[in-house]
Specification:
about 450 residues, mainly alpha, single chain
């Protein structure tokens, strides 16, 4: 009996030592600590912010964010993510520069179209005035630069810097929202605060980027960029297209809810979704950076990545399950008490949305590993089907059903599609590595 206790204690001690020595977990906790502080700031100030802006303000902000998010998905053509893959830094830095060039080009094209045909922009975003057009240009440009800088910092394993960026973004966003809220700037203030926060976060990342750009300046040339653009053509063709479809799929609810149920309903949906996504990003922001880097490192060393995939999915589900049950039961009451009576509808919608968000939370490994094993083509067509299903649900619901019914069906469709994606990508990873997917699953669950 005593020997068994000794063995158990010894195993626990060895496990603790291994965990302490794990660079993977260490990097996750570094980024997560910054995200945790950022989310604490956001949540602490949310009850103030929710009382300074109306659901209609958040409805306009949601519509504007949906449009910029859709275009933002194409800004770097995902060459920013491709910069994570090359073994040589001189290849990676050229991919980084390529992503900045595509950001500038796409930003100017989108802005030019909006200036030539402002009615399209105003109708989609529910805004009016040249100020919003200027913010549109600034928001896109900053977003693309931030995407590229973030990817470079992750490649450089500068996780302390990316962690700090999360805190800076949160302070910049929440602080400016409170100031602009007291100034009664409405939706314009919400949009400014978002762009301002991204700008501050990007400036922080420049401290890693600029020295690398200077040291590798002689390696940067257009000829190399053209060659790498062709080599990693699957990223703009499938990965960026996938991001674009995901952005449409994410932004579409706000735009269609505005059309069928009004700005108040769209604002409640956007606010509820934002509140649900905030704690998710505590884990996912850290995991996205570290998991991508770690999986790429595994591949470079010729190591298997299937077990990493399965374990990550299971851990994410375990983390999210209990909070999801709690929110499904009490979300309306929680939203009313914390954010004010005007946000009760947001809580009612959040009750449905948590069904979808649970599996969105678990699908991050599927998104990352699909790029690593280069099956973006499948994910692209998957996203087409998902977009069609979500659009059909929202349109039919908008015509025939109440808002709460439409959002519930919309959430269930999203959950089922994400479950399928998680399973399929895992199966493809197993196939690539000549491993039995089902047997590994059974072994892990036992």
């Amino acid at each position: 009996m005593a020997s068994n206790k000794f063995i158990i204690r010894s195993n626990i001690k060895n496990l603790i030592i291994k965990l302490k020595q794990s660079s993977f977990l260490k990097n996750i906790f570094i980024v997560m600590s910054g995200t945790a502080i950022a989310q604490f700031i956001t949540y602490a100030l949310s009850p103030i912010i929710s009382r300074l802006f109306t659901p209609e303000d958040f409805g306009i902000f949601g519509s504007f964010s949906a449009v910029t998010g859709i275009i933002g998905a194409l800004l770097t053509l995902d060459y920013s993510q491709a910069s994570m893959l090359p073994k040589e830094n001189h290849d990676a830095i050229n991919l980084f520069c390529l992503s900045i060039i595509t950001t500038v080009i796409i930003t100017f094209i989108a802005s030019a179209i909006s200036i030539i045909k402002p009615s399209i922009f105003y109708n989609l975003t529910r805004t009016r005035g040249l100020g919003y057009l200027l913010l549109f240009f600034i928001t896109l440009l900053i977003a693309g630069i931030n995407q590229a800088s973030q990817a470079w910092a992750v490649r450089s394993k500068a996780f302390n810097r990316t962690s700090t960026s999360q805190i800076i973004r949160s302070i910049g966003s929440s602080g400016s929202r409170i100031l602009l809220g007291f100034m009664k700037t409405g939706s314009f203030g919400l949009i400014i605060s978002n762009a301002f926060a991204n700008l501050l976060a990007s400036i922080n990342l420049f401290q890693i980027l600029i020295p690398d750009l200077k040291s590798m300046r002689s390696n940067i040339n257009l000829r190399m960029m053209k060659s790498l653009a062709k080599e990693y053509l699957d990223f703009p063709l499938f990965s960026a297209s996938q991001n674009f479809l995901n952005a449409i799929s994410s932004g579409l609810p706000v735009l269609l809810i505005t059309k069928y149920y009004g700005l108040h309903a769209a604002g409640a949906y956007a606010f509820g979704l934002t509140i649900l996504q905030a704690p998710m990003s505590l884990v996912l922001t850290a995991l996205r950076q570290v998991l991508f880097q770690k999986a790429c490192e595994f591949q470079h060393k010729g190591q298997k990545i299937l077990l990493l995939y399965i374990r990550t999915v299971i851990v994410l589900f375990v983390i999210a399950f209990i909070p999801s049950i709690i929110l499904f039961i009490w979300a309306p009451q929680v939203f009313t008490i914390i954010f004010g009576a005007q946000w009760q509808l947001a809580g009612i919608l959040a009750r449905s949305l948590i069904i979808w968000m649970l599996f969105v939370f678990c699908n991050l490994p599927a998104i990352i590993f699909s790029r690593i094993i280069r099956i973006q083509r499948f994910v692209f067509f998957y996203d087409l089907v998902l977009l069609a299903a979500r659009t059909f649900t929202l349109i039919i619901g908008g015509i025939h059903f109440k808002l709460t019914q439409t959002v519930m069906v919309f959430a269930i469709v999203g959950a089922l599609m994400n479950i399928y994606l998680i399973y399929f990508v895992g199966k493809q990873v197993a196939k690539k590595e000549n491993m039995k997917y089902s047997l590994i699953l059974i072994d892990l669950l036992n």
